[in-house]
Design brief:
Layout: H1 18-34, E1 38-39, E2 45-47, H2 48-54, H3 60-65, E3 67-70, E4 76-79, H4 84-93, E5 103-112, E6 124-133, H5 138-154, E7 160-166, H6 173-185, H7 193-201, H8 215-219, H9 230-246, E8 250-252, E9 264-272, E10 280-286, H10 290-293, E11 301-307, H11 308-317, E12 330-334, H12 337-352, E13 357-359, H13 366-376, E14 380-384, H14 386-391, E15 393-398, E16 403-408, H15 412-420
Parallel strand pairs: 1-5, 7-8, 12-13, 12-14
Antiparallel strand pairs: 2-4, 3-4, 5-6, 6-11, 7-9, 9-10, 10-11, 14-15, 15-16
Helix pairs in contact: 1-5, 5-9
This protein binds adenosine-5'-triphosphate and magnesium ion.
Length: 421
């Protein structure tokens, strides 16, 4: 007999885990609204070329991680590995540049990356994605960073900090890259194979290599922030000033990069204690060149994405409590045909009045139905035995007190409404 399992790197989110997801999503919508971000949903798959262009052919995502296939019409399709490319595509497609700028949107949904699964790293994961498109003010960088921060504070995270860097712009980065490449050529025998390739194809990404042997070389590597042009330096200083005035802790890190020309200036991550190697709960930054790469007019933008599985992991490891989800507080127990008929009708009336109700199925003893009521943790069992059915009433059992009151069938809804609030 076939026995199937969820594909490697995917997971089922069982009912007992849903309180985390509901709570996080509820806070996401709440925080986004506080800052004036509106929801935008884009398709789960897009043309493959959108990601090749919009994420970049020399990134890990495009080189190794995309779920790409030809559909039955032979169209190259990719399950989205991230949101930004699709969101900017939607901005251009719907002519949003004529709306008041910046256009501030957020999205929530699954992303797909073919990665080696481990804690906090999956092949299907869920992102909360935030973008402010059409604004170059560093106050917009601060704003998206604040949305992330606000959310994590709301969720009760401890030990939060920003990792922060500037990777300059197409004016100042090329000179820096020359210095960086020259430095790395001097260490060519000590670096990993991936880095030898990066040196040729995408040298900025040398700085975020995770290989152990490359770490000392990165530590001593030249720093982009010492090569910023006046505009980029001023942008960065202004952002730091804002962060200081809000008292937000940050660590400057020259290793934090996004290796493509259309990623510009600010790059940041939020790290939270508790999830080990995968401690970035969010990553983001500026992409002032992206809209043009996708065929639109020059349009600055800044945003971030947060992986919600890592958020859930962090909450669990930090022992954050979440509200339980409401469940029915009433179970209807019945004995005999006539009682069951009354029970079915009563369940329907209660639900219509907004009172969650369970009814037991089949023919079981009252004792077993009350055991079920106990297990379900309901506040009241409504017992309709043969005598109650004859008399048109219900024995209402308060499960905590163990007391029982007779209540006329037509009064049950009101009686329960008063007690359940
Ligand atoms: P990492 O360095 O951990 O691979 P990344 O730089 O690839 O992260 P981004 O592309 O910036 O990540 O994605 C934004 C966020 O999405 C990450 O900070 C992380 O919280 C989450 N994320 C990315 N990839 C995965 C994954 N495979 N599984 C779970 N969450 C992920
Ligand atoms: Mg990654």
């Amino acid at each position: 007999m076939a026995f199937y399992r969820a594909p490697r790197g995917t997971q089922d989110i069982l009912p007992e885990d849903q309180p985390y997801w509901h709570h996080i999503q509820e806070r996401i919508h709440g925080v986004a609204q506080l800052y004036g971000y509106r929801q935008l949903d884009t398709p789960i798959f897009e043309d493959t070329a959108l990601f090749e262009q919009g994420v970049g052919e020399t990134t890990d995502i495009v080189e190794k991680e995309m779920y790409s296939f030809l559909d039955k019409g032979k169209n190259p399709i990719t399950l989205r590995p991230e949101f930004t490319a699709g969101v900017v595509r939607a901005y251009l497609e719907h002519g949003m540049h004529v709306r008041p700028q910046p256009v501030k949107v957020y999205s929530l949904g699954p992303c797909f990356r073919y990665e080696r699964p481990q804690a906090g790293r999956y092949r299907q994961h869920t992102q909360f994605n935030v973008e402010a498109i059409g604004e170059q003010d560093p106050a917009a960088d601060l704003e998206v960073m604040s949305v992330a921060w606000h959310l994590y504070e709301d969720l009760g995270f401890k030990e939060l900090s920003f990792q922060l860097n500037s990777i300059g712009c197409p004016k100042c980065r090329p000179d820096f890259l020359k210095v960086l490449v020259e430095y790395y050529r001097g260490h060519i025998d000590d670096i990993c194979d991936d880095c030898r390739r990066r040196l040729e194809r995408n040298p900025l990404r040398l700085l975020d290599c995770k290989a152990e042997s490359c770490q000392p070389i990165i530590d001593a590597a030249p720093n982009m922030r010492e090569h910023l042009c006046d505009e980029c330096a001023e942008h960065f200083q202004t952002l730091l000033g804002y962060l200081d005035s809000l008292g937000r802790p940050y660590t400057l890190s020259h290793r934090l990069v996004r290796g493509l020309d259309y990623y510009t200036k600010t790059v940041f991550e939020v790290w939270a204690e508790g999830i080990g190697a995968q401690n970035a709960v969010c990553g983001g930054g500026r992409y002032d060149g992206l809209a043009e790469v996708l065929g639109g007019p020059p349009t600055p933008g800044v945003g971030f994405a947060s992986g919600l599985e890592r958020v859930v992991l962090t909450m669990k490891q930090q022992g954050v409590q979440v509200p339980t989800l409401p469940s029915p507080q009433v179970l209807i127990a019945h004995l005999g045909e006539q009682a069951k008929l009354m029970g079915v009708k009563l369940a329907s009336d209660l639900r219509a009045a907004g009172i969650g109700a369970l009814i037991s199925f089949g023919k079981r003893s009252l004792k077993s139905q009350l055991r079920q009521a106990n297990r379900q943790g309901v506040a009241f069992a409504l017992i309709i035995g043969e005598r109650e059915a004859e008399a048109g009433r219900v024995a209402v059992r308060d499960m905590a007190q163990g007391e029982q009151h007779p209540v006329a069938l037509e009064d049950v809804t009101t009686w329960l409404s008063q007690r359940l609030g």
